[in-house]
Amino acid sequence: MGGLYWRVFGLFWLALVAVMVTSVWITSRVVWHERVGVPTAHQLALAGDIAAATTRRIGSHDIASVRRWLRSQRGGPIRVWVLPLPANAVPPPPQPGFLVQREAVASDGRRYRVDVRWVRPPHPLRPPFRAFWLSFAALGLLLSAAVALLLARYVALPLRQIRASARRFADGDLEARVGRLRMGRSSEMVALAHEFDQMAARIARLIQDHRRLIGDVAHELRSPLARLGVAAELGRGETDPAERETAHARINRELERMDRLIGQTLDLSRLESGARGVLETGDLDGLVAARVADARFEAQQRALTIEYAPPPEAMPVHAELDRIASAIENVLRNALRFAPEGSSITVVLQRSGHDTASRARLLIRDRGPGVPEADLARIFEPFYRSADARQHIGSGGGLGLAIARSAILRAGGSISARNREDGGLEVRIELPLARD
Fold first, then answer.
1. Strand pairing partners for 196?
2. Could you tell me which residues are beta bridge partners of residue 104?
3. With contact defined as beta carbons under 8 Å apart, do 424 and 370 qualify?
4. Euclidean distance between CA atoms 59 and 72, whole angstroms
5. Does residue 172 contact residue 145 with C-beta atoms inside 8 Å?
6. Where are the alpha helices (DSSP H) in 35-128?
């Protein structure tokens, strides 16, 4: 149970305590005025003195004069009764309601009981019971309304703030955030506002990425379309069969490039949309060895060599193996594209970390020109190419490393790049190993 539960409980509990304390106080005041006054020590002493005086007078005077004397003493809150007792009767026990009870013997030997009692004043104060209950109900309603209002504001204001931010975000304000709550900052409300802000930030980032992706795709397609149009015009007016064949070959290359670009764009969109493929467990060494074999076949055309030594132990990974293989292939193709003719590419697969959290580390190193330090963190963004890469012939559309990054991140791994001290670029891929 979180903080909101205890706050609601505490507010209602305090309200009930306040009502109970107030009702007890009011009731005690009513009972005080309603009941017979409780005698004090002075009143008890006074009643004892009166009982003693009456007893002495009975012993020295006749009972008629005693009664006349008692009638002359009336008018105060103390009343005295003199009751005859039978000669051989046992004195009765003290009766409730009497302050003092004593036995007296008259001069003629008769026995009497003297009862002294504190009685109600002649005009007792009787409380207005209807007004009492009405005031009690009004006080309960007032306190309940105050607590309910406070509770409503405590719960409603943060929800109203979150709702207003959601409405602004739905109307197209991608920067709308809840931020700091003005009231009702319970742990649940703060967590809800934080989750909304995180959701809004992610959605805004996805929308901006998709907008940029659409713009980048349109920009990348514009160039091959323009070249395609030029080649079509040249081929249409060309009468030489060789020139016409050259124009047709150019058209086919541009169409293949557009098809590859569209395919890569769809792959990247599927990866970033979160659509999951089939998760499988396989040996990472086998995936790397197969991709290296394919890359060696392409490297023969430029006299490139690819050095790879299999690791001494198996490295199982649990992921979308086809995506991992595609990511490794894209990084190798990038290395082949920028490696100088006759140079070598080194591929290293090793284990890192401890047994409980071991990871596979794949290093792909080339001898190319490298990447400016300012561009290292951005080469994995879609369609981003450094100035050196844009000048390089056949540098691609700038989606290969972005696809590799999305695939590696989906598998719980990481990918980064750094320039080598002796020249070239090193791309590091780390993936969590599956437990046996």
1. none
2. 112
3. yes
4. 19
5. no
6. 41-60, 63-72
- Whole-angstrom distance, CA of residue 248 vs CA of residue 244: 6
Question: Looking at this protein, which amino acid is placed at residue 275?
Answer: A
pLDDT, tens only, 343-395: 999 999 998 876 656 889 999 999 888 888 888 878 887 766 655 554 444 44
CA distances from 292 to 289, 336, 370 (A): 5, 11, 21
Helix, strand and coil in the chain, % to nearest 5: 55, 15, 30
Q: Which two tokens stand for residue 424?
A: 């070239």
Task: List, in order of start, the domains of the chain with CATH numbers.
Answer: 3-36+125-168 (no CATH), 41-118 (no CATH), 187-270 (1.10.287.130), 277-432 (3.30.565.10)
Output b/e per residue, 257-284; b: 16+ Cβ within 10 A.
Answer: bbeebeebbebbeebbeeeeeeeeebbb
In 159-301, where do the E strands start and end? 280-283
Would you give the DSSP letter of residue 213? H
The long-range contacts involving 105-112, CB below 8 angstroms and separated by at least 24 positions, are 105/58, 105/59, 106/58, 106/59, 106/62, 106/63, 107/59, 107/60, 107/61, 107/62, 108/62, 110/63, 110/84, 111/84, 111/85, 111/86, 111/87, 112/58, 112/63, 112/82, 112/83, 112/84, 112/85
3-class state of residue 186 by DSSP: coil
Q: Per the structure block, which two tokens stand in for 262?
A: 């569209």
The pair of three-digit structure tokens given for residue 174, joined into one six-digit string: 């991608």
φ, ψ at 409 (rounded to 5°): -65, -35
Contacts of 253 (CB under 8 A, 6+ apart): none
Q: pLDDT of 190-218, one tens digit each?
A: 888 888 888 888 888 778 767 766 666 66
Where are any strands of DSSP class E within 128-184? none
Nearest partner of 335 among 310, 356, 363, judged by Cα: 363
Which H/E stretch holds residue 105? strand 100-105
Q: How many other β-carbons are positioned within 10 Å of the β-carbon of residue 411?
A: 20
Nearest to 201 by CA among 218, 176, 183: 176
Q: Is 409 left (phi over 0), alpha (psi -120 to 50) or beta?
A: alpha
Instruction: Find the angle CA(125)-CA(130)-CA(135) to the nearest 5 degrees.
Output: 100
pLDDT (tens digit, 9 = 90+) per residue, 9-44?
A: 667 767 767 776 777 677 766 665 545 455 667 777
Describe the strand order of the beta sheet including 425-432 as a list of residue ranges.
305-308, 344-352, 359-365, 425-432, 414-419
Q: Would the pLDDT of 323 be above 80?
A: yes
